[in-house]
Amino acid sequence: EAQDVAWREYVREDRVHRSLYTDERVFNEEMVKVFGHTWVYLAHESQLPEPNSFVSTKLGLRPIIVTRDRRGGLHAVFNRCAHRAATVCREETGVAKSFQCPYHGWTFKNTGELVGAPWPQGYGPDFDKSEFGLGKVTRVDSYRGFIFGTLSEAAPPLADYLGEARPWLDYWIDRAPEGEVVVRSAAHRMGYRGNWKLAFDNAGDGYHPSFSHRSLLEMASRMGDSKDMSYFGKTPDDGPMKVYSLGNGHSVIDQRPNFDGPGSIWANQRPQPGREKFEELIRAKYPEDADRLLDISAGGQINLSIFPNLLIIGNQIQVIEPLSVDRTQLTWNATSIGGVPEEVNTMRMRTQEDFPAFGEPDDQANFEEVQRGLAVTEEEWVLMNRGLNVDGWQTIDENGVIVTAVTDEIHMRGYYEEWLRLMNGEPA
Ligand code: FES
Ligand code: FE
């Protein structure tokens, strides 16, 4: 079902073609060649805390169940009955040794094998249960709790695919003193009428916040923030914040240089109600460890984008789920961490309320308006040219990581190179 096109015509150095956001054929091909051929984030291990835990999720459009077997090993099977394709597991999460299909009652082990069908004497002598298990995601791997799956045998090992994103993921994970990050069970879900890539375009975009999130930032100022806000000032390009293009479609905005001392972008911008009292309490109760605990109680300070569907934004994990060429669902998972007093996690949770409540709707309004604009067939191109060939912005290190001004659209140019590779049938 490959399209007879040269994808390079659609992804140029400084622009991409509108049809990448509007053409159903492109979308269908992405579900095969992008979501089918590269590592896709599926779930976090903390969502599968015990033997026989499971989580329902998706790999592109394919419904998937991520499971632990009785010994704790991880699997991912298609949530599609081998009989007539019904959804075998309709629960979002739980503990189950097996799944019984609600349609005609076939039962599968949580590792996929068919173990029983009702009234088995009704099948002919050739019926072989071993042929009718749930299909498997052939490769499942976990990097420090983050579970990914791919259907490709040609994809590199997961750790290599994460590549230069790994030190950033490590930084984020190691903010938990014992490296234990816990995804809180209740997810925050929001859908928008627009292509899935609009969310990815935006997550590494340091150009839009001063405009899109102005009301949030103004609210922060009104609430008496006194810290450095230079990122949102007149010249963010000279500001201390940078965007890093990490290769393989990944990127990160590092917000840390903008803030001095313990705290975070959100704690600094919008003092949490009760934060001062909280600080007093922590300093009194844990004098030795107060700075570190206060730091951890605040936001995560980086926006890390891992192609194609995982975004780490502050303390949250966001997953992009494509539904159709012009519909997408975003799932926000709040996280807490192990090895700290519970009041630290409670405060940390509060820092996670601001952005989904006040920031994300700004972004989603943009996504929907962009999708409307893309209906103008006479205008073919979307630009991603800010920062391209600007003198003095970009520096490149020995690992090929490019560091540049925070408003550089390099994150978008970077992931489209990966997109192009995959759509051309090359391995991730
Ligand atoms: Fe599952 Fe028939 S579709 S048992
Ligand atoms: Fe935004």
From TrEMBL:
Keywords linked to the UniProt accession: 2Fe-2S, Iron, Iron-sulfur, Metal-binding, Oxidoreductase
Domain of life from the UniProt record: Bacteria
Cited InterPro entries: Rieske_2Fe-2S, Rieske_2Fe-2S_sf, Ring_hydroxy_dOase_asu_C_dom, Rng_hydr_dOase-A
Coiled coil start-end: none
Gene3D superfamilies, per the entry: Naphthalene 1,2-dioxygenase Alpha Subunit, Chain A, domain 1 (3.90.380.10), Rieske [2Fe-2S] iron-sulphur domain (2.102.10.10)
Domain Rieske: from-to ranges: 40-137
Presence of keyword Magnesium: no
Keyword Lipoprotein among record annotations: no
Family: Belongs to the bacterial ring-hydroxylating dioxygenase alpha subunit family.
Protein name: (2Fe-2S)-binding protein
Species, as recorded: Arthrobacter mangrovi
